[in-house]
Amino acid sequence: MHVQFWGAAQTVTGSMHMVHVNDKQLLLDCGLYQGRRKEAFERNRVFPIEAKDVDAMILSHAHIDHSGNIPTLCKNGFRNTIYATHATRDLAVHLLMDAAHIQEMDTKYTNKKRKKQGKNLFEPLYVQQDAVQAINRIREIDYHERFSPLPGVDCRFHEAGHMLGSAVSEIDLNENGKKVKLVFSGDIGRPEMPILRDPETVEGADYIIMEATYGNRLHEKTGDAKAMLKEIVNETFKKRGKLIIPAFSVGRTQQIVYWLDQLAEAGELEPIKVFVDSPLAVNATHVFRSHVECYDEEMIYHMMNEDDNDPLGFRNLHYIRKVEMSKALNNYDGPAVIISASGMCEAGRILHHLKNSIGNPKNTILFSGFQAFHTLGRRILDGHKNIRIFGEELIVHADIHKLESSSGHADQEELVDWAKATAAKSNIKGVALVHCEKDAAEALKEKLDAQNIGPVIIPERGQTWELT
Length: 468
Ligand SMILES: [Zn+2]
Prior knowledge:
By secondary structure, this protein is an alpha/beta fold.
C-alpha cells in the first residue's frame, strides 16, 4: 500500500495523488496545474499516469485546481467512477464546462497568432464534450454515507468547510488483512465561515494527506472582513468611485454577496449599485441556492427570515450574464461595486474592469483570495505600479486592498488545530503536506513537529509514501 504524489507537491495547484492498494489505483483529485504558461501547457497535457489504469477516483471539491484536469483523464481513456458529494457534482458541471470553454477560446486565440507566424497549430487541452464525459462519470454521495470505490476500500466524506460540497475523505484500506485509515483533507476551510458548516475531523486516522496553503500565515478573524468590506464600499460611494473586486466565481463571490446582503438589510450600506459580472458566478449562485444540506445554521436562519429570505440577493444587487451588459458597465457613471472573475486576474471579464479602473485614484481594487506567483493579481497586490493588460501599459493609481480574512483556507493556527483534533482521536503514523509552496510547508511542519504529530513529510512530485 502506498501513495504517489503527482500534483500539488510543493506547489498550490494541480492536486493529484494516487493510492495504490490491492494492485488497484485510486486517484485522489485531478486538478489543473496553473502557473507559467509554457510549464502549465506541458504539465496538464502530459499525464504522469496511465488514465486507463485508474480504477476509481475521489474528488474532494469542485475547484479547478482539484477537478480541472478530469476531462483530460477521460479523454485519455478513464472509464470508471468518480465519487463526490452532491454539491461538488453540481458545481463541477459549471466549472468544467466553463474550463473547457476557456481552453477552446484560448487555443483559438493562440492559433490565430501562430497561423500568421506560419507555426504549427495547437489542439485545446480538452473540449466541452470531454467535460460532459467527465461529469457523466461522477456518482453522488451524501456526507457521512459509506461507499466502496474498490474492493478493500471503504470511504466516507466529512465536511471540509472550504466551499460548497467540499469534503475531507476518510479512506479505509484493507490489503490482505492489513488495515490502514488514510485521511485526505482536500482543502480545509475555517471555523465560522459564512454559509458553510465548520470543518470536521476524523477518528482513528493512521495517515493524513493534508493541505498547507497558509502553513506560514495567520489570517485576520472573519468578523473583520465584513467590517472592512463595509468601510471600503461606503468610502467608494463617498468618493463616487468604483470598487473592483476580483473574486473566484464559486465560493468567494457568494461569500462577499452574503456579507453585502447582511449589511444592506441592516441599513449599514450606502445605496451603491453592486454588480456580479460573471456568468459562472450566476450559475454557481443557483447551485448554492439549491444545496440547503450544506448550509450552517446562520445561513438557514437568514433564508427563513421573512424580512430577507434571499441571503444572496438584495435590492441594489444585479447579476450580469450577457456580454453587452458587462461592456455597458465600462460607461456606467456613478459609484459602483463590480465583483468579477477570474480571482487571480489571469483571464475573464475582470481584466476589462481593471483596465478601465486601475489608473484612477478614485477607484479601489480589493483582493479577496490567494494570489499565486506569476499572476497579474499577485503583481498588483505586491505593489507593482507598471502593469500590462491586453498589451497596454498601465500605471496603478487606484487604492489596493486585501480582504485576507475572507480566505476559504485555514491559516497556520487553524491547520494546527485541525491536525491536533484529528491526532487526539487517532494514532498518527505520518502526515504528508501538500497544496503549498515549500516555505509554507516547512513552517507548518515545524508546528506539527512541536505537537508530536507526524513524522511529517513534504513530498516532491513523483515521490512514493509507504503506508505500513
Ligand atoms: Zn479549493
